[in-house]
């Protein structure tokens, strides 16, 4: 799949933008703060229904405007689709495919992308919530119906937390609440499915991460990853600020076993939940552990190793999607990445992405980008597309 045309209206710092894109490499060049990242952020939004930079949509709408529009022509095997989404400051967002209305959460059925940005260093060094978002974003692209499952789980979690807080405030015991078991049943049903899918996608990423790490770093330091389940924790608290905890290891991916684990976990933390008025185990508190040579990458990996690991996670994601997605290759997006890499990693990264159908790159300095990725260059200045050019043969 590739994007052949991108149009923006009142998106970020663009009043309007209209840019034709090519198969292969497309480079957006401009000084920092001019709007390069906004262009690739828009492409990424179509595939993930979210931004890699902010947690809410409001920041995507140009100041003083009530809505923003992303419109793109997507091409896959001779089939062309016009995909549009209107992001509203108030009210629900709206989306269309070939002028027919769809739910915005269905957009990943039509667009696929994998975006790597400097913020991805937090995948290795940051909080568990960052790793959960990474895995869940890949889940939705791998199987778009899971967007609904994740949304339903969040809704049930909020309802259950509200009930627990009410019980704490009124001095009631959680086990005496007649509706708590109803919410437990729904939480377990949805949560077990999320855990099952996360375990599966992490298992599928494992060998791909190892291959990608060797390709990017030029060495094999035995990178590995595994799911940490909070429902298996002995205690609801952990060293992490958010309270995520749980053991790592081979866990059953049977949906019935996961349901049983979840119920046992809820039983184990019942008293603590009553005291604190919050749900203390479940997918919302799980983590993914990354290791290098058997040691946790967080805290042990050097800066360069952490960068290589983060890059490897994105490259592994792209390889997984190109293998499993009906859309074929995802659009690979490298947002301001090359300035952070040494010359060896730059060359190896370029080699790793060259065979994807489309690669979008942003850079402040043209010479930071390997020559083979500059085939189609777009210059950006102050929210305007000022010039496009093809590289000389």
Give the topology, please.
Blueprint: E1 2-11, E2 14-20, E3 24-29, H1 36-48, E4 67-76, E5 79-88, E6 94-97, E7 100-102, E8 113-116, H2 121-125, H3 128-142, H4 146-170, H5 180-217, E9 223-228, H6 255-268, H7 270-276, E10 287-292, E11 295-296, H8 297-300, H9 303-324, E12 331-335, H10 343-353, E13 358-363, E14 376-381, E15 384-390
Parallel strand pairs: 3-13, 3-14, 8-12, 12-13
Antiparallel strand pairs: 1-2, 1-4, 4-5, 5-6, 6-7, 9-10, 10-11, 14-15
Helix pairs in contact: 3-5, 4-5, 4-7, 5-6, 5-9, 5-10
Overview of this protein structure:
The protein has 393 residues and is of the alpha/beta class. It has a domain at 2-112 and 328-390: P-loop containing nucleotide triphosphate hydrolases (Rossmann fold), CATH 3.40.50.300. The chain is 39% helix and 23% strand.
Primary descriptors:
393 residues; alpha/beta; Rossmann fold; six-stranded antiparallel sheet; six-stranded mixed sheet
> What is the highest CATH level, the class of the domain at 2-112 and 328-390?
Alpha Beta
**CATH architecture verdict of the domain at 2-112 and 328-390:** 3-Layer(aba) Sandwich
**Helix tally?**
10
Largest sheet: 6 strands, antiparallel
Rg computed from alpha carbons, rounded to a whole number of angstroms: 22 Å
**Global shape:** globular
GO biological process, one term: SOS response
Keywords: ATP-binding, Cytoplasm, DNA damage, DNA repair, DNA replication, DNA-binding, Nucleotide-binding, SOS response
Protein name: DNA replication and repair protein RecF
Subcellular location: Cytoplasm
């Amino acid at each position: 799949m590739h994007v052949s045309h991108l149009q923006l209206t009142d998106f970020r710092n663009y009043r309007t933008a209209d840019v034709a894109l090519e198969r292969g490499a497309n480079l957006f060049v401009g000084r920092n703060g001019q709007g390069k990242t906004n262009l690739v952020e828009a492409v990424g939004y179509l595939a993930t229904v979210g931004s890699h930079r902010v947690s809410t949509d409001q920041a995507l709408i140009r100041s003083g405007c009530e809505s923003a529009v992303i419109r793109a022509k997507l091409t896959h095997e001779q089939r062309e689709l016009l995909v549009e989404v209107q992001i509203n400051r108030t009210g629900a967002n709206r989306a269309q495919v070939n002028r027919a209305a769809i739910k915005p959460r269905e957009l990943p059925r039509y667009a696929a992308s994998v975006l790597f940005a400097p913020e991805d260093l937090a995948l290795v060094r940051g909080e568990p919530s960052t790793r959960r978002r990474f895995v869940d974003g890949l889940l939705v692209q791998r199987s778009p119906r899971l967007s609904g499952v994740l949304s339903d789980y969040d809704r049930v979690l909020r309802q259950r937390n509200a009930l627990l807080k009410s019980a704490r405030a009124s001095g009631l015991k959680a086990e005496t609440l007649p509706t708590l078991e109803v919410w437990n049943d729904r939480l377990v049903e949805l949560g077990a499915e999320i855990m099952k899918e996360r375990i599966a996608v992490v298992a599928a990423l494992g060998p791909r991460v190892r291959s990608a790490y060797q390709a990017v770093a030029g060495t094999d330091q035995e990178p590995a990853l595994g799911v940490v389940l909070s429902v298996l924790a002995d205690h609801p608290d952990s060293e992490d600020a958010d309270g995520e905890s749980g053991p790592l290891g081979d866990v059953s991916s049977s949906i019935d076993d996961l349901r049983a684990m979840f119920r046992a976990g809820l039983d184990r933390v019942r008293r603590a939940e009553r005291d604190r008025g919050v749900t203390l185990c479940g997918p919302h508190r799980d983590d993914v552990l990354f290791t290098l040579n058997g040691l946790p990458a967080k805290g042990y990996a050097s800066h360069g190793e952490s960068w290589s690991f983060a890059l490897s996670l994105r490259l592994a994601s792209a390889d997984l999607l190109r293998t499993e997605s009906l859309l074929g290759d995802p659009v690979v997006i490298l947002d301001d990445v090359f300035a952070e890499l040494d010359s060896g990693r730059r060359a190896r990264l370029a080699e790793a992405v060259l065979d994807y159908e489309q690669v979008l790159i942003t850079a402040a300095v043209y010479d930071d980008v390997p020559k083979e990725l500059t085939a189609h260059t777009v210059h950006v200045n102050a929210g305007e597309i000022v010039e496009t050019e093809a590289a000389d043969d």
